[in-house]
Structure formats: structure tokens, C-alpha cells
Amino acid sequence: MQTSPIETDAVVVGAGPVGLFQVFQLGLLGIQAHIVDVLPHPGGQCVELYPDKPIYDIPGIAVCTGRELTERLLAQIAPFNARFHLGHEISGVARQSDGRFLVDAGHDLRFLTRTIFIVAGVGAFKPRSLALPGIEHHLGSQLFHDAHAPERFAAKHLVIVGGDDAALEQAIALCPNPDQPTPHAAASVTLLHRRELFQAEPARVEKIHVLCQARRMQFIAGQVSGFEATEGRITQLQVSCADGSTQALPLDALLVLLGLSPKLGPIAHWGLAMQRRQLVVDTATFTTAEPGIFAVGDINTYPGKKKLILCGFHEATLAAYGAAALLWPNDPVNVQYTTTSTQLHKRLGVDTPAQSV
Ligand SMILES: Cc1cc2nc3c(=O)[nH]c(=O)nc-3n(C[C@H](O)[C@H](O)[C@H](O)COP(=O)(O)OP(=O)(O)OC[C@H]3O[C@@H](n4cnc5c(N)ncnc54)[C@H](O)[C@@H]3O)c2cc1C
Predict the structure, then answer these.
(1) Fold of 129-258
(2) CA–CA distance, 140 with 301 (Å, rounded to integer)
(3) pLDDT tens for each residue of 203-254
(4) Which residue of 78, 126, 270, 330 lies most exposed, with the fewest beta carbons within 10 A?
(5) Are 229 and 250 in contact (CB under 8 A)?
(6) Quick one: which atom of ligand 1 is closest to the CA of 57?
(7) CA–CA separation, 34 and 144 (whole Å)
(8) Average pLDDT by stretches of 10, the chain with 357 residues
(9) Domain ranges of the chain
(10) Which residues pair with 314 in a beta bridge?
(11) Ligand 1 pocket, residue 90 CB under 6 Å
(12) 19 Cα nearest atom in ligand 1
């Protein structure tokens, strides 16, 4: 039986930097939000694509990394107790007869909301897989795209596909060590990457060389060109090696770590006006053509649009005011300053400083 939808005033789709700031601006206006992201952590591109790179153009912060910016935004929105729903992809939105939207977030999570903020950036980040028809049927049984739950690989003949830090880290962590057996070690580890050059920390690359020399794992430069399955189980991969040869590689489990690629996915099919896969908005309130659905950050487009975090912050501010006007049409919301407004201090959970004479 389906559980009842969560009733709320606002659902924010996307917990990237702009989605997080959207929660802040809504909170200042007294609108509590639920925030949903398909990723298991907040931060969007900042955490997924450049967690340790410096950002220099956030106002008032001379420099911070993608991860630090996310941490600061999370601290800033803490007073508003937004409910996070991570690991959920918003797939469907349907207007109800009472004007609210029924939002489907998968895994039996639904919302009945009066406003939606699409802050989906370049789309939902999905793991890149192998372009082999039928391999997806083995997802979750023998094919995996994440390194969680290493016990899945214990005592298995494991092939890891990838050449970046994530792939090398797992190859190192899971390869067997006869001197010091660990509970999650695989029976064997083969690292497969299209060439001998890795895009990883030099120390990790060095460790891989050492482990290969010690015959604790093997490395093959090549690409998976096919697979064989018997009775619903993958038994071996066909590998086209970089030296032109082909090789059959028996295995129990396949861990594909080829990074993530963004997919706009279901949002493209919600019937909202789009230009080059971006949502067209009115720049007064950043509403889409559908009243109650706002679009801010990298997902939107308008004359002069710049895909910058700073611009997304501005858009989120005006969208919050747009939502307040929609939620309380007879009670206009005026701009208040966080420096002086006792109402905002209350919402922020800070003490109002005594008035100086
Ligand atoms: C390498 C690099 C460096 C950059 N450096 C800078 C810089 O120095 N300064 C700057 O201002 N900008 C920089 N940018 C751009 C900046 O990262 C983006 O403008 C910013 O991340 C946009 O934020 P956002 O919240 O709109 O989207 P995103 O950060 O893309 O977040 C969107 C989130 O929505 C989620 N999502 C999407 N669809 C769904 C769905 N259907 N259901 C659930 N969740 C969904 C995604 O998983 C994602 O977490 C850089 C970008 C890159 C790639």
C-alpha cells in the first residue's frame, strides 16, 4: 500500500549550492522546504565535480573549495530544519484539482506541495556504465557502480573498470593480502582501464604498481567489448586489450567506476517550456510557464544567463519572494534586513542585539 504524500509548501529539487541557498531564502520568508537529490550527499557539482578545487568568486569569501562552500551553505540553512531526502530522483509532477502538485520522488516518497523549485543544475548525476546491451540486467547482483558495502565483494573474483582515484582506491582496498587477511577482501582483483595512464594521485598509482608486482592484483590495459552469461549470471568478460589482443576474463562481480554523467531525465518531459534543454523563466520571479514551479541555477535560461553560483543565489532570492506572493496573495512580503529584523532573527534562531542609543 502506498504511504500518504508529505504535505508541504515547498519542494526543492536538487541539493546543489543553489538548491541549498534556495532553502535559506525560503526559510527567511518563513517557508519550510523539503529538499530532494538523487545523489547520496548535498553539494551538486561542487562536491561531485570539484570538491577540492578553489572557488574565488563567491562574494565575501576570498577562496573556498567546492566541499567547503557546501559545508558553509549547510551551516547557513541549519536554523530552518529543512528535511533532506537524498538518494531520491524526482520523476513525476502532476497538478491536482486543488492547485497543489503531486511530486513523485520514487521509493514510495511523494509530496503534495504548493510550490516546486527546480534546481536540478545540469541534471541528475548518474553513473556511466558500459555500453553493452543487456548488462544492465545484472545491476545489483553482479554489476555495481558504487563502492559502498564492500562485503558484496568478499571472496569474489572482482573486475574493477576505471582509471581514476575512485577505481584505484577500491582496487587497493579490496585486493587480497595473504599476510593480513581482511574480512572484505576479494578472492582476486583485476583493474581494467583503457590505457596505462591513470587520472589519479601519484601515490595511488605507485601503490597499484607495487601491488601488481607483488601479484596481489593484476592490471589490464583494455576495454570490455562483450560478456558471456550462463543461467542469468555473467561468467566472463571479453576484453579488447590495448596491444590489439583479446582476452576472456572470468569473474564473479564487476565494479564499474567510470564517473558520473548528468542526465536531465524526467524534467525534460514535464511539459515546461525549454530552450536547449534549459527551462525558460520570467526573471522577475524565476517562475516557469507553470505558476508555482520555479527554476533557478544552472537549469534555467533567460537573456543574459550566466551559469555561476552567484547568479543562482540571486535567482533563488527572487524565486523565494515569488513563492511568498503566491502562497500569501493577500499578505505582501516586504524586504527585511537580517541585520535589523527581529522577525528574521527569530527565524534564524539568533538573539536580537540590544538597540544602541
Ligand atoms: C569544474 C567546474 C568548476 C566550476 N567553478 C565555478 C566557479 O569557480 N564559480 C562559479 O560560480 N561556478 C563554478 N562552476 C559552476 C557551478 O558549479 C554551477 O553553476 C553550480 O553548481 C550550479 O548549481 P545548481 O545548484 O544550480 O546545480 P548543481 O550543482 O548541478 O546541482 C543540481 C543537483 O540537482 C540534482 N538533480 C538533478 N535532477 C534531479 C532530479 N530529477 N531529482 C533529484 N535530484 C536531481 C543533481 O543530482 C545535483 O545534485 C563550476 C563548474 C564546474 C564543472
Answers:
(1) FAD/NAD(P)-binding domain (3.50.50)
(2) 37
(3) 999 999 999 999 999 999 999 999 999 999 999 999 999 999 999 999 999 9
(4) 330
(5) no
(6) 9
(7) 29
(8) 90 97 98 95 92 96 97 98 94 93 94 97 88 94 89 95 95 92 91 95 96 96 96 96 95 94 80 91 96 97 97 98 97 95 96 60
(9) 6-125+261-348, 129-258
(10) none
(11) yes
(12) 25
- Residue 230 has a pLDDT of 95
pTM as predicted: 0.81
Sign of CA dihedral 242, 173, 226, 229: positive
Ligand 1 contacts CB of residue 315 (under 6 A): no
| C-alpha to C-alpha distance for 11 and 97, rounded to whole angstroms | 19
Cα 186 to Cα 195: distance, rounded to the nearest angstrom: 24
3-state secondary structure of 50: coil
Residue nearest to atom 51 of ligand 1 (CA): 45
φ/ψ bin of 337: left (φ > 0), alpha (ψ from -120 to 50), beta (otherwise): beta
Q: Is 38 a pocket residue for ligand 1 (Cβ < 6 Å)?
A: yes
Say if ligand 1 is within 6 A of residue 200 CB.
no
Closest ligand 1 atom to the C-alpha of 311?
11
For domain 6-125+261-348, give the fold. FAD/NAD(P)-binding domain (3.50.50)
CA of 73 to the centre of ligand 1 (A): 14
17 touches ligand 1 (CB under 6 Å): yes
pLDDT of residue 259: 86
Q: Is 122 in the pocket of ligand 1 (CB under 6 A)?
A: yes
Query: Ligand 1 centre and the CA of 119: distance in Å?
Result: 9
Topology agreement, domain 6-125+261-348 and domain 129-258? yes
